[in-house]
Every structure is written in C-alpha cells, then in structure tokens.
Amino acid sequence: MNSENGCFKGNGKCFCFFCLQDKYAEVLATLFIIGICAGTHFLNIMIHEDIGTFLSTAALISDSTVLVSLVVFFVGLFLQKSFLLKQVTVVFAVYIFFSLACFCCNFITLIFGDCYRETYNLFTVYTDFYLEENPDTKLEESEIKKNLKTKFYLEVVAHMLSLGFMIYYYITTSSYVEKINETEEIYVHKILDNNNFNINISDNSNSSNYGKYNRTFNSSKNYSAV
C-alpha cells in the first residue's frame, strides 16, 4: 500500500507524527489508536447494550482481540520482528469490518427508530429505561426522547470519526509493515549473495590450488623420468 503522494510519501506514518522517525511515529499512532478502539467498543454497543447481550459479548471479544493484537504489534515495533507486525493487518481489518457492521446497524436503527410500534420503538424503550432509573425526574417524556435522540446522533458522528481514524491507521500501518518486510527481504538477499560470493571464492581458490598441485606433480614426474 505504498503511496508516493501526500502523507504516504516514502513511508507509512500518520500525518500527525510526520516529523518523527517511522518507528516512533508508529508507536505514538498505535498508542492513540488503542484509545480509539477502547472508545469504539462502547460506540459499537451504544444502542443494544441494554436491550440484548449477544452484541455486547461479541463486541467484548472483538475489542479484547484487537487490543491484544495492538499490544503485540507495539512490542514488535521495538523488536522489529515482522511476524509480530504482520498479524495486526489481519486482526485490525476484521475489527474495522465488525465496527462498520455495528455502525450500520446502529445507524439504520436510529433512522427507523420512530417507525416501529411503541413496544419496539427505540426511543420509547430507552425513555422507559430512563424513567425507571430516574423516577423523580421533572423532564417531560418528549424532552427525554429529544435528549436521547441528540445523544445517539452525537454518538453516531463520533462512531464515524473513529472509523475514519481506524481506516487511516490501517492504511498507514499496512504501508509501514510492508516497508519493514521489504527491508528484511533485502537484508536476507544480501546475506545469501554474500554467502554465494564466499562459496564461489572458496571454490575458485580450491580449483587454483588443485591446478597448482597438478602442475607441480606433473613437473616432478617429468623430472624423475629424465
């Protein structure tokens, strides 16, 4: 995913840390994205947390997996081991897909939240939850629904921004990992070339010594014959 324009020119690092060396820019970007993922966990389940447990469980497993993957990647940045770095591109891609699915589910539910009957109306359900938890509230039911809508819509915007950050991080990190892999491949090729060169020199030296030995042996035989 190397790009030769803009923020991706010659390296894979976030524009926020463009003035830093590649490794340190990636370290800071990873710390930042760990916080983003922790917050995204709550955005993924912002609607269904109080309604069902399946999505909450799936989100917890998904978030735990990606956080472990990012910690392993973080360690790999200092050890510069490609096998520790490569895994994050797969795990993070799956996490982005999961978060995007949660976003679409939340967004569609909000858009059509008022279209259902009262029993299944999202805002009615959450208004009832609010009234149960705050029986002494002085707010009218319409005000509570309005506040809930504002809260949910702001969370949707935050979810969109977090997805944007994660996709951007995935692109830059994939570019960085690809760059590390290319560096390792070049290093391995150099070692192999040096080994082959040394073997050729050794073979040539042995051939030369063998030729000298034959000439000396033949000269000795000729001298003895005379």
Brief summary:
This protein has five helices and no strands.
Tell me about this structure.
By secondary structure, the chain is mainly α. It has one domain (11-177). Helices cover 78% and strands 0% of the residues. It is built from 5 helices and no strands. Helix 3 (82-111) packs antiparallel against helix 5. It starts with 21 loop residues before the first helix and ends with a helix.
Using brief descriptors, characterize the structure shown.
5 helices, 226 residues, mainly alpha, disordered C terminus, elongated
Arithmetic mean of pLDDT: 76
User: Which series of helices and strands comes N to C?
Assistant: HHHHH
Largest sheet geometry: none
Indicate the low-confidence ranges by residue numbers: 1-10, 217-226
The helical percent reads: over 70%
Total beta strands: 0
How many separate helices? Answer: 5
Keywords: Membrane, Transmembrane, Transmembrane helix
Transmembrane segments: 27-47, 54-78, 90-112, 152-171
Fold topology:
Elements: H1 22-44, H2 54-79, H3 82-111, H4 122-133, H5 141-225
